[in-house]
Design a protein that fits this description.
This protein has 914 residues and is mostly helical. It is built from 48 helices and seven strands. β3, α6 and β4 form a beta-alpha-beta unit.
């Protein structure tokens, strides 16, 4: 530890500090990071910490969670003491059972719980060397955990090679730079380890090493040995070569002296990622165990792991040099041996098998394809693309090669790698000039998402499906299913009645070849007014098998849930999964998940969170050049801005979306653009403009077929019509909703249908009944914006029909809801109506004012009859947290039971405003 006094002081303080924390050591190759990690491990051991070591391995950097397994393997005995949810998380991650792949957050929380449990007996120090080679999934989790160790008894220290980019670069963990030694320290270290050097050689080593400790230790024997008759100043091949290459040359000279059998043994260890330094990497039995390698240990290439007694590489550069010096045939032979060693581990077996194979081999290709499926389910879509591409290269038939390339392109598209998807499509030349179905899937996907080309992609996919039908397909087919689902997505974006009718006819002719899940999408994504009955229940049944679904199947089902307004039920899964898909999995799926999370946040009144989600999604879609999703995101941001009364911004986004989508025929987005115009005009009180925008979506008294915004803007059209003297059109529209049985399709449609019927009723008895039905509907607490608008309309009606006093409660509740939502123009409208009742200020109970927004929402949901578990799922809280909030709410409202909530929430404002 010569010249490392400052670093030693910092590391001593790190170990001695109370509570958990993380630290990153970053420096060049050979600068002494591993030695400092050894030092901190010794300090921690002396301080009665349990030390767990792991090491990143370049050969495993694409294996999802390979690095995390190193850290957690010694703690597996604690798993049984975790709750069932967290046990299932680890079972899925380590492929011990099938299930829903966890998000970074979900897995990170599970890891924190496991570490906390293990550290309750003895503090833990986690030591990670060569963190730059850690797989992306593990890096994300380690970063998440490292940022949340405060207050625990766990510390994390990571060594990173400065010249290599890694996920830790953005992990926001504290860093300690490890620099080269000073000239004085370099001389001291060199003289201590290599005394009596010829002055010229000593000077040469100091100059070449440039303060790098490893070079100071390793160069002298190389310069002196075998140099008889040469000028000590000559070091052939070194000029202009970076230090790591020089050191690899140093190790190469030693490796060349070894026998063939020992070199082969070292190569097998290197290719399987055997650890370097004091950390042997994985637990015994899970990596190749080098045998009969004493010769390599004698010349300083290997050391002995003190815990296992196994050989380990003395430095990562030894491992790299062994691989670089091997011939291709030697590497393939080593991989073949390792494939047999790991035949019980699907992904590791496939990785080595593929590397050992040169000529097409259908059996190897099939193993790689199975490994790709496994990786996809675990959130490793990026790795799956590489394995499927290799599987295609090893396929024995053009048909299988084309199918696997198509699958690779399909997943690459979902992973946001549109360029790679295009290259994969272009490499599929097996069918001459005719496109294979797999190629159609990939090329149409790229055309749709990169440039919003719904017309040509629609023609391509329709022709491919019709071609497969004409070709006599009789059994369910994976490629046909992909084509079917892609056509449904294209049709959803096109929102064109003619295309949908043609699709229905085509699917009818295919019968049972169209999967039941695709039938759900067919009915939900197209025309929910005419085909939405029963979709809600079908989506619920499909989600019961969530563990077997691919990530894109989940987002498709969530899209169906959105159309029937039950997305809140599935949002907890989306939030658990989205980070993983964005970082290491299917990035395009992650974008869709962000859209869906944002839509639910908008629906339930979490508008600030929705804005942040939308901005994150816009950055992601823009960086991936996914033009369709980028404009889709702008559309939702525009709609949110309109709801919040940010009219200028809303119209800017509306114009951008409309200008891009209308020439391309992307009707889904042009409808949202019209909805932005409607909502912005309503926010301003410009009801004539709102009406004109609304009838651009659907005429009053009808719901335009295959226009998804037609039913969603029901309340907008009715309000705008009433305020512009078009009572007849407003009533016709409300009755059309009732006749179409919209309340049976979704809870939100039920809420706004009853509200529209109440607003347009001329009979006071019917109006009262419908307002009561709307305001007591369970959906009222879930969709606060629509509920507040209905209450505002009710209050206005009561003021005109029953007097000022009768109107105050509804107007108070409406004004408070708008204020909580952050809708200032709507708030002011409600306040103006409230002032018209004679109330000088916004009537608000002192009790209610004492409730936080979260407490008020929990109270509303509890008053609506939801259990703590159901409330927690809606608000993404644990049932225990919900219970704690209610415990604080009861005394604020002066009640002692849940049954009294509804009366307490209703009476207190009314009593104060009488």
């Amino acid at each position: 530890m010569v010249g490392r006094e400052s670093e030693q002081e910092t590391l001593s303080a790190f170990v001695a500090a109370s509570g958990g924390r993380a630290l990153v050591l970053r420096g060049d190759t050979g600068v002494g990071k591993s030695a400092l990690l050894d030092h901190v491990a010794e300090l921690a051991t002396g301080a009665q910490h349990r030390v767990i070591r792991a090491a990143g391995v370049e050969a495993e950097s694409e294996l999802p969670f390979a690095g995390l397994h190193q850290f957690l393997y010694p703690l597996l005995s604690y798993l049984d003491r975790l709750d069932e949810v967290h046990r299932r998380v680890f079972d899925v991650v380590f492929a011990r059972s099938e299930g829903t792949p966890p998000s970074v957050m979900t897995l990170g929380i599970a890891v924190l719980d496991l570490l906390s449990l293990a550290a309750s007996q003895k503090p833990i120090l986690l030591v990670l060397d060569d963190g730059q080679w850690l797989d992306a999934s593990s890096t994300e989790v380690c970063g998440f955990v490292g940022r949340r160790l405060t207050g625990s008894s766990v510390k994390l220290i990571v060594g990173l090679r400065a010249a290599v980019r890694s996920g830790f670069d953005t992990a926001a963990l504290p860093e300690l730079p490890v620099t080269t030694l000073s000239e004085k320290a370099s001389e001291q270290l060199l003289d201590m380890r290599h005394p009596g050097l010829d002055p010229r050689i000593r000077r040469l080593v100091l100059d070449e090493a440039q303060g790098n400790p490893l070079a100071l230790l390793e160069l002298p024997p190389h310069v002196r040995g075998g140099r008889v008759g040469r000028d000590p100043g000559e070091l052939p091949g070194y000029t202009g070569i970076a230090l790591p290459h020089r050191l690899q040359h140093v190790y190469g000279a030693r490796i060349e002296t070894l026998g063939d059998a020992v070199r082969a043994e070292l190569l097998r260890g290197a290719l399987d990622g055997v650890g370097a330094g004091a950390s042997a990497g994985r637990p015994e039995g899970t990596r190749y165990r080098m045998m009969d390698a004493d010769e390599a240990a004698a010349c300083g290439l290997l050391g002995i792991d003190p815990l296992t007694g196994n050989f380990v590489f003395r430095h990562p550069l030894v491992r790299s040099t062994v691989v670089q010096m091997a011939t291709p045939n030697e590497r393939r032979a080593a991989h073949a041996v390792l494939a047999q060693v790991h035949r019980e581990d699907l992904e590791r077996h496939a990785m080595h098998l593929a590397a050992s194979t040169v000529d097409p081999d259908e059996q190897v290709a099939a193993v790689l394809e199975a490994a790709a499926d496994s990786a996809t389910r675990r959130g490793g879509a990026v790795a799956a693309v590489a394995w499927l591409t290799r599987a295609a290269e090893l396929s024995e038939s053009h048909e299988e090669r084309s199918r696997r390339l198509g699958s690779a392109a399909f997943i690459a598209g979902h992973a946001g790698q549109l360029d790679r998807a295009q290259r994969l499509v272009g490499s599929d030349t097996g069918f001459g000039q005719s496109q294979s179905p797999a190629s159609v899937v990939a090329s149409a996907y790229v055309a749709l998402y990169e440039d919003g080309d719904v017309r040509s992609s629609q023609r391509q996919v329709l022709a491919a499906i019709e071609g497969m039908r004409a070709g006599g397909v009789r059994e369910p087919d994976e490629m046909l299913t992909r084509l079917v689902n892609l056509l449904l997505a294209i049709n959803q974006y096109a929102s064109d009645e003619t295309s949908w009718v043609r699709t229905h006819e085509l699917f009818d002719s295919l019968g049972d070849l169209v999967p039941f899940m695709s039938r759900i999408y067919q009915d939900a994504w197209g025309d929910v007014v005419r085909r939405g009955a029963g979709v809600r229940e079908r989506v619920e049944r499909a989600f019961a098998g969530l563990g077997n679904l691919e990530p894109w199947d989940v987002t498709r089902l969530c899209a169906a849930a959105y159309h029937v307004d039950t997305l809140s039920q599935y949002r907890p899964y989306l939030q658990r999964t989205v980070d993983r898909e964005v970082e290491t999995g299917a990035a395009s799926v992650g974008m869709t998940m962000l859209h869906q999370i944002m839509l639910d946040q908008m629906a339930v009144g979490e508008w600030g969170e929705a804005e942040r989600t939308g901005q994150r999604c816009l950055e992601l879609t823009t960086s991936h050049r996914n033009a369709l999703f980028a404009h889709h995101t702008r559309a939702y941001l525009g709609l949110l801005a309109a709801m919040r009364g940010q009219v200028e911004r809303a119209r800017e986004l509306q114009a951008a979306v409309d200008a891009w989508a209308r020439p391309r025929g992307v009707g889904f987005l042009t409808q949202i653009a019209d909805a932005i115009g409607t909502t912005a005009a309503l926010s301003e009180g410009d009801y004539e403009a709102a009406y004109l925008h609304a009838i651009g979506i659907t005429p009053p008294g009808a719901f335009t077929p295959y226009a998804h915004q037609a039913s969603r803007t029901l309340l907008d059209l009715v309000e705008a019509a009433l305020h512009t003297g078009r009572a007849e059109q407003a009533r016709a529209h409300a009755l059309a909703a009732q006749e179409a049985n919209l309340p049976e399709i979704s809870p939100r449609l039920a809420l706004i249908t009853y509200g529209a019927l109440a607003m347009t009723a001329t009979d006071p008895t019917e109006a009262d009944a419908m307002y009561d039905r709307a305001e007591t509907h369970p959906a009222a607490a879930v969709f606060p914006f629509e509920h507040a608008r209905i209450r505002l309309a009710h209050g206005i009606r009561l003021r005109h029909t029953r007097g000022r006093k009768a109107a105050r409660l509804s107007l108070t509740l409406a004004a408070e809801a708008f204020e909580r939502l952050g809708a200032p123009t709507w708030t002011e409208r409600a306040r103006a109506e409230l002032r018209a009742t004679g109330a000088a200020t916004l009537a608000s109970s002192a009790h209610l004012a004492a409730l936080t927004w979260q407490e008020r929402r929990i109270a509303d949901l509890a008053a609506g009859g939801l259990t703590n578990k159901e409330i927690g799922e809606r608000m993404h809280l644990s049932p225990r947290t919900v219970s704690s909030h209610l415990y604080r709410v009861f005394p604020k409202l002066g009640i002692t039971s849940r049954a009294a909530l509804r009366d307490a929430l209703g009476k207190i404002p009314g009593e104060q405003n009488v």
